[in-house]
Amino acid sequence: MNETIVPILDKVFSNKYFRCAFAKKGTIIVGCEHNISGEAFLLSGSIRQNNEDGTFEDYTAPYHIKTNSGTQRVAYTLEDTIYCTIHSLEYATNTDEAEIEIFKQVPQITRIRNDYKLLLNQLNMDKEPEMQDCVFEHNDNIYFDKSEIHGIGCFSNRVIRAGEVIAVALVDSVRLSTSRYVNHSDIPNSEFVDTEYNSTCLVSLCDIPKDSEIFVNYRRRLLCQE
Q: Does the pTM of the predicted model rise above 0.90?
């Protein structure tokens, strides 16, 4: 599953922010944490979405739900879907100001850390599971070092171009060190790709600068395997 841009229509009108997303079937949407409450409307299609207690539930249009402040939604579209939200504004007069007022602004590193914790919660884990042994392989593309996100991470040893095979992660049932140390992010720069040779490779989604940590979206990977 590749990264995609979900078409958005948004407008500020009469002290309210209206936002509609048009998502194709099979799209994973990770929302930002909300500073203020709002209303969400599923106008067409169906989705699997997290509730505020951490459980997931399927919803089919037409459907309305209230989003409380502090809420962060994660949705997987089961059909082509139109999903709209409405928020009342205090000071914003345009869409850029509205997003700042409505959505919690956090540094990227903090956001990735928070999403890592969110993933563990969604998998009903209070901490990272114990990892199985892995085989360390020599690879000039990467090295392993302390991560700002969690534990040890996988880093680029050179500039890696979009679409490059960075490393082999799994061969048959043998797990290599790349798959052991690549951390999760909801804004990944790489993905695991299964091959016809009973192996899995780590492939870059974009250009990755030298000495950058390499991430995959484990949430997407798990959903694809359901």
A: no
Q: Write out the residue limits of the CATH 2.60.120.10 domain(s) in the chain.
A: 8-105
In whole angstroms, what is the distance from residue 40 CA to residue 111 CA? Answer: 23
- Assigned token pair, 108: 């990227």
176 and 134 Cβ atoms separated by less than 8 Å: yes
Taking only the tens place, the pLDDT of each residue in 13-28 is 999 999 999 999 988 8
DSSP-based three-state secondary structure for 120: helix
What's the pLDDT score for residue 221? 65
Q: Hey, what are 8's tokens?
A: 């958005």
| 157-181: pLDDT as tens digits | 999 999 999 999 888 878 888 888 8
- Residue ranges matching CATH 2.170.270.10 in the chain: 107-226
Say if residues 185 and 115 touch (Cβ distance below 8 Å).
Answer: yes
Architecture category of domain 8-105 in CATH: Sandwich (2.60)
